[in-house]
Each structure stands twice: as C-alpha cells, then as structure tokens.
Write a structure and sequence with these properties.
Elements: H1 3-30, H2 35-39, H3 43-50, H4 53-56, E1 64-73, E2 76-88, E3 93-100, H5 109-126, E4 131-138, E5 143-146
Parallel strand pairs: 3-4
Antiparallel strand pairs: 1-2, 2-3, 4-5
C-alpha cells in the first residue's frame, strides 16, 4: 500500500470513528437534563463540559433539552427539535445549542447555519422582543461555534 493510500484510509478511519463517537455522544446528551444528571453518568464527558463555562451553561438548571418547535417560514410549515435551549427572561435572551457529529465542519456548514436560522425565526415569532443566539457544539472535539 502506498503512503498516500494509507493516509487516505487512516484519515477515513479516523473520520468514521469520530462520527460514530459523536453520534453516541449526541444520543447520550439527549437524555441529560442538567449537569447533576451528567455527574451521575459519565465523568470524562462531565470534565470536558464543566471545564468550558460556555458549554456548561447549556446544562445548568433551567436549560431545556430536545425542545420541539414548529411554525411557518415563507409559507412553508417547519417542524424541528432543538437539542438544547436556554431562555433568560431577565436579559431577554435565548440561546440555542445544536449538536453536530461531523469531523469536517466545512462539509455541511451552510446547511447547519440555515437550520439554526430556522430555529431563530421560529423562536422570534414566539419571543419577538428577545435576542436569539445560535451555537453548534461539534461533538468530536467539544468545540463550541457561534452561528
């Protein structure tokens, strides 16, 4: 096997592993309603989440998980499920977090940004006076990206 073929296979194997691992983490996080739940289950993941306050806040008391939302955008009915949602009525802000398992972030960036924009538009109809922020949590490396 040539070095370039070996490199391609190795890169694909790593990507497959990261995607599979990310999908498992996504499924796991769907069941977690707070950091307290997380403390009872997976200490390695807990350490990663707690060490980053920007991520940890999405798991604090009052955060919501797997939030269904539906409405009409440009005459088209849309039904979605938001992975994590934080609503702060004092500051009138809403933060949306969507999990993604991709290793190559550039492959579906536009699609994911449109998805977050749909969430924002649907929430803006419900909360017209709130500032809505969107984030992607890349599960293969727990990197948080503002959208």
């Amino acid at each position: 096997m040539t070095n370039s073929l070996r490199a391609i296979i190795t890169k694909q194997t790593q990507a497959d592993f990261a995607t599979k691992s990310g999908a498992q983490t996504h499924k796991f996080l769907q069941k977690i309603s707070s950091i307290e739940d997380l403390k009872k289950t997976d200490s390695a993941l807990l350490k990663c989440i707690i060490s980053n306050q920007n991520i940890a806040r999405f798991f604090e008391k009052g955060s919501k998980t797997e939030v269904p939302i539906a409405g009409t955008i440009n005459g088209k009915f849309i039904s979605r499920r938001i992975d994590r949602l934080l609503i702060n009525h004092k500051t009138k802000t809403i933060d949306i977090l969507d999990y993604k398992t991709d290793v190559d972030k550039s492959a579906n960036t536009e699609k994911y940004y449109r998805q977050i924009d749909e969430y924002k538009k649907l929430l803006q109809d419900i909360y017209p006076n709130y500032k809505i922020n969107g984030y992607i949590l890349w599960l293969h490396n727990l990197e948080l990206e503002a959208v």
